[in-house]
Amino acid sequence: MAAAAASALSLGLAPIASAQGVPAAPAPAPAAAPSPTDSALAESVAAVVNDDIVSTYDLVQRMRLLSVTSGIQPDQNTLPQLQREALRSLVEERLQIQELRRVEKENKVDIIATDPELDAEINDVARGNNMTGEQLVAQLRSAGVGPETFRAQIRAEVSWQNYIRGRFGSRLRIGQDQIKAVQAQLAASASKPQYQISEVVIDPSRVGGPEAALQGADQLIQQIQQGAPFPAVARQFSSSATAANGGDAGWVGSGEIPAEVEAALDQLRAGQLSRPIVTQDGVYIILLRDKRSGSSVTMVNLKQAAVPLAQDATPEQIEAARVTLESLRPKVTGCADLETKASTVSGIMAGDLGEAEIGGLSPDFQAAVAATQDGQLSQPIRTAAGLHLIMVCSRRQAGAQIPTPQQIESRLFGQQLSMISRRLLRDLRNVATIETR
């Protein structure tokens, strides 16, 4: 089967790829007539998945689609990998569609994407590549990829994602304790270097073992170095949840990535591609897009309420100012109303001091910041200008740019849905009868 598939793939294939993982520019061409080889292969069997046949024609078509959308050039080194990945994806899609049909029948609901829904999805993909849906299909056809091959892949992907999100999404609850734990972890690593990366993660269990995963990673790196767009390769070959975003993992720091990956990143410069990195989770290929140093500098955002006093003010005047400021304390609930409430007390001036590095504050202000919880008023501070109460509205580690709670929740939600999807697919594979030929 491998030799036949490789032979068929070489017939008329002209892969063109863009960073979005689909053809880069419209080049409409008349539909090519099926080759005799394709017709012959259509009668052969590549695999049987619970009595559902995957033909060698299906396999060749998917190999062509993979080559076009990933930018990987087919040759004697890459053809086995293209064939392995194409067969894996076809088998998994058969399992997904079979499961969705079972659920549809049992629950009398419609789950599998309809043709109009597919048309809309394809048009969205095409718009991302500055072309129309018709131009996209024509471009694929000119590379020997039949429209139904592309539609079958999109149908399985969209239907499965919608099913997983619909069935499990409403049950998932990301607790505040989880979000706070991530925030604490990010804050603790804020003083360490941070990396903006894209990743391809190859799961050995999906490609035939650790050796196959390592060889596959080597081949993908060669193809990326020869011009295959990293996002397109990630979309087609990565098992990570970031695959849907072209492998974009954003900014990561210590504790968010495997130790082996972090060690490799320390040796890379921005713009460099890693060698294969073997970890417990799989084999990683990392593109380091940017790098920034961490910082232990704490930045605080301050507001104050003050009573002006001359430098030579008498003790009685200082005590009167203290009493005035203390009268404000029970009225203020936080930074949001400090200035408003201060304006109601005669003699008090209030204002926003902005953000400052804590080390740049006067010793008295540093001590007050350290001793005061965020959103609370400090004890009075005497300066040459008067008597002050300060409030810490926020504090952060410089350079950390910790994600918001909403961003962390969204990331955790996506990771959990991805894990559920992988587990369900693994269970379907374990109970399925799969024969490859």
Per the principal axes of the C-alpha atoms, what is the gross shape? Answer: elongated
- CATH class wording of the largest domain: Mainly Alpha
What number is the mean pLDDT?
Answer: 85
Q: Main sheet?
A: 4 strands, antiparallel
Structural class category: alpha+beta
CATH topology of the largest domain: Triger factor/SurA peptide-binding fold
- Level-2 CATH architecture of the largest domain: Orthogonal Bundle
Supply the number of structural domains: 3
Task: Annotate the secondary structure layout.
Elements: H1 2-9, H2 36-41, E1 45-49, E2 52-55, H3 56-70, H4 79-107, H5 115-127, H6 133-142, H7 147-168, H8 176-188, E3 194-202, H9 204-207, H10 210-225, H11 230-237, E4 248-252, H12 259-265, E5 277-278, E6 283-292, E7 298-308, H13 315-328, H14 335-342, E8 349-357, H15 363-371, E9 381-383, E10 386-397, H16 405-431, E11 434-436
Antiparallel strand pairs: 1-2, 1-11, 3-4, 3-6, 5-6, 7-8, 7-10, 9-10
Helix pairs in contact: 1-3, 3-4, 4-7, 5-6, 8-16
Write a brief caption for the model.
With 437 residues, the chain is α+β, with helices and mostly antiparallel strands. 48% of the residues lie in helices and 17% in strands.
Description:
The chain is of the alpha+beta class. It has 16 helices and eleven strands. The strands form three sheets. Strands 4-3-6-5 form a four-stranded antiparallel sheet, with helices on both faces. A hairpin with a 4-residue loop joins β5 and β6. It is elongated.
